[in-house]
Amino acid sequence: MKRWANDIGPNLRKVRLRMGLTQEQFAARLQLKESEMTRQVVANIEARRRRVFEDHIRLIVRVSHCTLDELFFGTPPPTKNNPPGRSKPSRR
Fold first, then answer.
1. What is the pTM of this model?
2. Average pLDDT over every residue of 65-91
3. CB of 63 closer than 8 Å to CB of 29
């Protein structure tokens, strides 16, 4: 990984796979939002070979419906059964 590269690649891959999309399909959704990001760009971001700029990050968040925390840190958004601060749902 290059020193200046944003570290979202592995988390972007998780988000994309959770959506059930291939890199090609994800790139197509980005392109529908006026982006010129291709499958190769998505692949390079996931492999940490490409710098990701702020406007791309905003677009990725908007298209994937994830949070910045999830994209940068891999933290999924809280759910009803797993609110923030609890690592596991309670056993009842």
1. 0.75
2. 71
3. yes
Tally of domains in the chain: 1
Residue carrying the six token digits 């309670």: 90
Please check whether residue 78 lies inside any domain of the structure.
no
As a whole number of angstroms, the distance between CA 63 and CA 26 comes to 9
61 within a domain of the structure (yes/no): yes
* pLDDT tens figures, 37-49: 999 999 999 999 9
Distance CA 56, CA 59 (A): 5
Distance CA 80, CA 62 (A): 22
Residues 6+ apart with CB under 8 A from 20: none
SS (H, E, C) 24-80: HHHHHHHHHCCCCCCHHHHHHHHCCCCCCCHHHHHHHHHHHCCCHHHHHHCCCCCCC
